[in-house]
Structure formats: C-alpha cells, structure tokens
C-alpha cells in the first residue's frame, strides 16, 4: 500500500477492546501520520500489548473503529491486515522452532522493498545462521528473525512490542540502530512499545502514555525525554 507523508497511516477512534467480554482499553483515540513514529509507554498491565494486539486483530474489539490509510480494517482478520501493510513483531516473537531461519522468513515473504537479501544485509547474523532451526537461536537472534520476518512482508506500518526485552546490551544497541534506520532512513511508519522509556523516546517522534487502558498523555517524544520529572510522574502513576 502506497503512503504519502502527512496522510494518516493509522487511526483508532473510540476503541474499546480486550479479551472475551473483558474491556482492557477504553475510549482509545490515536492518530499516527505516515512516515512518523509513535512510542507507547506505561507501566506493566496498563494495556500496551492489548493495544498492539487490537491493531493487528488478535484482541476483541467491542466498540470503535480502526482505519489503515483511510480503509476500515476493524472487521478484517489478521491475515488481511497483514496483506494491507501491517507488520507485527509480538512480544513473544513467535518463531517457528522446526523451520530454519530462512524458511521462517520465506514463509511470510512478499514482493516489495525487503527481499531476503536486503534483510540479510540489515541482519548479517541471520545470513550466518540461515540454515539453523528456530529453536537453535539465541534470544537476540530470535528477535532479529522476528523483525526480519515482519519486514519481508513489506509493511507500511510496523508494530514493535517490546523488541528489546531481556536482551544483552550489545544486542539492544544493534536493534536500536536498526529501528533508527527504519524510521529515519527508510521512512517506515513505526509504533514502538518499550519498557525503557528513554530508549523509546530517543528514536520516536510522538509519544502516548497509557494508564488503566486509557491515554493519559500525548506529546512530542523529545519534550518528554527532557522533562525527567514529568516522565517519572507519568510512568509511576497509579
């Protein structure tokens, strides 16, 4: 799906969502312009992962609408949202353990800006390990593979749910460099959920903070990054 800077990549309006009959998100309104990036911050359990799952279609939408580049997608299954341009890197990574690195990616490949060779250029370690099975990879390699598999789907919007969690500092820095490249050089629209607020704010344009399933703050990432008192207050809020 083509995108132009300034148009809305994603719009959520009046969204109530959760799992089964339970609402976790309440009256959620979010707009993400194309070729920009959004950080989603908040303590554990406030609805960040549920919000990402709702965008992708894994959660139950009880009310509201979701639009991708002006097209209503709230009634579409997950695979249709993927075909329309949403790439998703879940917190659980969801690597197929019985497939090789290359098979994990080729199973999702679509023509576009990210052929296999280009993913290998971005993650040389995956090229080295391309014949290894998914269950033979380290946590960092699995995360590289999860990002690479999302890119090979040629997304217009990339959802990253805590991609740095539990990784060694050297891997965190490498993935941060990749995320910066995707945002600043590839002009990919990116939504990033990350426990490290400072890392997320360093690479994104805009930020929202969630508390109890609602948006309690919206602003520019650079402003919140430098307002240490406000950031601490928002993240520690009950």
Tell me what the structure shows:
There is one protein chain. This protein is α/β, with parallel strands linked by helices and 238 residues long. It folds into 2 domains: 1-85 and 157-167 and 177-238, P-loop containing nucleotide triphosphate hydrolases (Rossmann fold, 3-Layer(aba) Sandwich); 93-154, no CATH class. The protein has 10 helices and 10 strands. The chain has helices spanning 48-56, 78-84, 101-106, 116-122, 124-128, 139-151, 169-184, 197-203, 221-226, 228-235; strands at 8-19, 22-33, 37-41, 60-68, 71-72, 86-89, 157-161, 189-193, 206-211, 214-220. It has a 6-stranded mixed β-sheet, sandwiched between helices.
CATH top-level class of the largest domain: Alpha Beta
Mean residue pLDDT: 94
N- and C-termini, Cα separation: 40 Å
Q: Which secondary-structure class do the elements indicate?
A: alpha/beta
The CATH topology of the largest domain comes to Rossmann fold
**Morphology:** globular
Number of strands: 10
Major sheet summary line: 6 strands, mixed
SSE pattern, N- to C-terminal? EEEHEEHEHHHHEHEHEEHH
| Domain unit count | 2
Please estimate the helix content: 25-40%
CATH superfamily of the largest domain: P-loop containing nucleotide triphosphate hydrolases
Strand order of the largest sheet: 6-7-8-3-9-10
**Low-pLDDT windows of residues:** none
The helix count comes to: 10
Radius of gyration: 17 Å
CATH architecture name of the largest domain:
3-Layer(aba) Sandwich
Note the beta-strand portion.
25-35%
């Amino acid at each position: 799906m083509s995108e132009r800077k300034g148009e809305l990549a994603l719009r959520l309006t009046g969204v109530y969502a959760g799992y089964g009959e339970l609402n976790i998100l309440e009256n959620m309104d979010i707009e993400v312009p194309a070729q920009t990036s959004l950080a989603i911050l908040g303590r554990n359990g406030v609805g960040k992962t549920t919000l990402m799952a709702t965008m992708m279609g894994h959660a139950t939408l009880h009310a509201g609408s979701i639009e991708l580049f002006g097209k209503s997608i709230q009634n579409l299954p997950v695979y249709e949202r993927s075909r329309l341009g949403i790439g998703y890197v879940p917190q659980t990574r969801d690597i197929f353990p019985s497939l090789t690195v290359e098979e994990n990616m080729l199973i999702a490949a679509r023509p576009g800006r990210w052929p296999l060779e280009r993913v290998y250029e971005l993650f040389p370690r995956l090229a080295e390990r391309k014949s290894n099975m998914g269950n033979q990879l380290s946590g960092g390699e699995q995360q590289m593979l999860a990002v690479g598999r999302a890119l090979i789907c040629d997304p217009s919007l990339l959802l990253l749910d805590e991609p740095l969690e539990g990784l060694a500092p050297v891997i965190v820095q490498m993935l941060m460099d990749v995320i910066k490249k995707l945002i600043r050089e590839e002009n990919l629209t990116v939504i990033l959920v990350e426990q490290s607020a400072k890392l997320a704010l360093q690479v994104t344009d805009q930020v929202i903070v969630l508390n109890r399933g609602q948006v309690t703050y919206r602003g520019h990432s650079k402003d919140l990054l430098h307002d240490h008192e406000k950031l601490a207050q928002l993240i520690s809020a009950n």
